[in-house]
Structures are given as structure tokens and as C-alpha cells.
Prior knowledge:
Layout: E1 14-18, E2 25-26, E3 29-30, H1 34-48, E4 52-56, H2 73-82, E5 87-90, H3 96-103, E6 110-113, H4 127-138, E7 143-146, H5 157-161, E8 168-170, H6 172-185, E9 192-196, H7 201-211, E10 217-220, H8 225-231, H9 246-259, E11 262-264, E12 268-272, E13 281-285, E14 299-303, H10 305-317, E15 320-324, H11 337-347, E16 352-356, H12 358-366, E17 376-377, H13 382-388, H14 394-397
Parallel strand pairs: 1-4, 1-7, 4-6, 5-6, 7-8, 9-10, 9-15, 10-11, 15-16, 16-17
Antiparallel strand pairs: 2-3, 12-13, 12-14
Helix pairs in contact: 7-13, 8-9, 10-11
Amino acid sequence: MHTLADLGDIQSQRVLIRCDLNVPLDGDRITDDGRILASLPTLNFLLSLGAKVIVISHLGRPDGQAVPKYSLAPVASRLNELLEADVHFCSSTTGPEANSAVEALAPGELLVLENLRFNPGETDKDEAQRKIFAEELSQFAELFVSDGFGVVHRKQASVYELPQLLPSFAGLLIEKELEVLTRLTKNPERPYAVVLGGSKVSDKLGVIEHLLPHVNQILVGGGMVFTFLAALGYKVGSSLLEVDQIETVRGYLTRANELGVEVILPTDIVVASKFGADALVEVTKSENIEDTEFGSSGLGLDIGPESALAFAAVIREAKTVFWNGPMGVFEIEAFANGTKQVAQALTEVKGLSVVGGGDSAAAVRILGFEDSQFSHISTGGGASLEFLEGKQMPGIEVLK
Ligand code: ADP
Ligand code: MG
């Protein structure tokens, strides 16, 4: 894999860089700029060499259309605040307007092009369509740098097809992410605990199977919990549930048992009358979710206080911890406790503590923790999980 150390003299050259600037927004206010900060070292490095830097990224899921709320304009403004260089923004991704913006760029200046995913070619299932879009992008530059770790597990035009069209290099963020995640897979210090939560339940369930042979404990919280509780025969009310995965989860539990891996599930749940900050709330045993005053309409939105303490105790004792996915709907104060306790416990780990996932990273910052309290906060959720599973990632393979 070529890295920035192999770049040589790139003064006045046009460098296209794929970043992952997919930050959470509240209107046009960035609620967590972690991914922007993580992209700065590579951007500063390229600018310091006098390159003309053209930044491409996606934001959200606009599904191939120009959806104003997913514009990268707020991200470009934030970059302008953070970088000493002149930062320009172009409201097109390709075409004549983008072309003129690239032409106008001076050495040591940076241009952000509009959201890649405003163009259907970026995520098209048809490789030929992705290739056409990648070719348009490749016209802008002499070199390509791949630094969007959060998307390297995706076969998308800017991640997989584009590097095949230009001399390509891995950026500093990708290098750093791979280095830390490799430490999790090569002889991790034990006990090794993995904490999983969040709402992308079906995406993440498959990960468990691959992780089981490598870890000592798996702690399950967030929306994923309810498929596990259902596998134990409990009723889960209106909580997130993947009915067609219940059997699979039973299989994981059996396999974990055979391997001597502890699967730690919450023993209590915070049940809400509805989804929202004004919901009524009751804490109940995990087996009694439908026995609250809300009956079968109650939904579990956080692990309970007893579980949060138990999870924290296991985490603190571990020597290696990887955490992906909030324990509850942390965005709402009433459902943030589980995530808070887990984050706090990670800061107390005497060993390697890694947080992965866009929302998980945002959660720790929003809840008031500093990045420096963890060994590493990965910018990739899905990507870091796939790496831990031992899967080959298209955006990395293509750089080799
Ligand atoms: P990450 O981005 O860290 O990989 P996900 O995208 O999978 O995490 O999930 C994050 C989301 O999961 C958060 O917005 C949070 O509100 C939601 N969530 C957590 N627990 C639950 C739950 N019990 N029910 C519904 N949503 C949940
Ligand atoms: Mg997420």
C-alpha cells in the first residue's frame, strides 16, 4: 500500500482526496466535528507540500439526489475555520461549475466539492455506472489520496473505482486506523471484551458470529438487545426487533456457550411509553418488558441502571475493549445513562480502549468525554467491525 511517505514532490499538483466528512448535523449546525478533525492531519500535510487539494466526501443518505439538508457547505465552513489555507466550496460535484472551481485553485488552497451521493453514480449497484462517475471525478486531479476510513468497506465509485484510475495513496487517518485495529486482532491482551449496541441491528448481528472465537465477553445493549431477549423467550413490547434473526441469535448463544465466551445481556431495561423526550418511563426486569403500565406498546430505549453498573464493572476489568453502538437512545437525556456508564468505564480501562462508529463517537463527545480519555476513537463503525471480522475491505484492497 502506498502512503503519503511515497508522494514525493507534489508542489502545484492537483490532489483529489476522499475523506469521510459525514458528520451529524442539527439543521446546518455540526453537532460533532470529530470526523473533520480526524481528517486535518492529511489535509494539512498535502497543503504544506503546496498541492491543490480537492476534497470529496459523502454526507448522509440523499440517495442520488441533491437534497439541501445533506449539503457539505457547513462542513466546508468548518474546514475554513480549522485550516489556515483558503477553503473554497463548489455546490456541484462534477460538471462545468466544478471544473471551473478546480481550475481556479491555487497551490496550497483547498476546494470542497458538493456531496458525492447527490450523484446516483456514487453508490450505483451497477459497476459500469460507478465507473462513469469515477472517471468524471478522476479528470480533476493527477493524484488520489484515500482517507475516508468510514467508507472503505463499501464498493462505491469514490472508494473503489476512482483509485483504479489515478496513482493512489493511503492517507494518515487510514494508516492510523489500520494500526490501532490491527492491535485488536493480533494477540489482544485479555480479558478482551466487545460491547455492541446501536440501531443497525441486522448489520451488526452477523459480526457477533465472527467475533465469538476471538473475545472473552460480548456485552449487548442498544436496539440489538431485544432480538436476544426474544431468543430467550421474553416478550419485548414495541422495542426494535428483528424477528427473522431470532433463530440465528439462538445459534450464537449456543456457539458462545461451546466456546466459553460470556454473552452479557442487560437484566433490566428502561421502557418508554413512546419514542420521544416527553415519554413516560419505567424501569423493569428484562423478562417483564410488557408488564409495565404501557403493556405491549412500551418500548425499551436504554439498558437499565442495574445493567449499566454490571456492564461497567466488566469493562473496567478488561485489558482490551472495543465498543460500537450506543446502549440506548443517548440523544434523549432519559435514555442516556447506559451509554454514559459504558463510556465512563471505557475511560477507566487499563489497556486498550477503542470506540468505533459515527454515533458512538458522537455520543462520547456529546456526553462530555474527551477523545484523549480513550486509546482511540475510530471514525468508522461498519468499517472497523468488518476489519475486526477479518473481512477484506474493497477500499483498502484496491490501494494494495
Ligand atoms: P454507530 O453509528 O455508533 O455504529 P448505530 O448507527 O448502529 O451506531 O446506532 C446509533 C443509534 O442507535 C442512535 O441514534 C441511538 O439513538 C440508537 N439506539 C440505541 N439504542 C436504541 C434502542 N433501544 N432503540 C432504538 N434506537 C436505539
Ligand atoms: Mg450510525
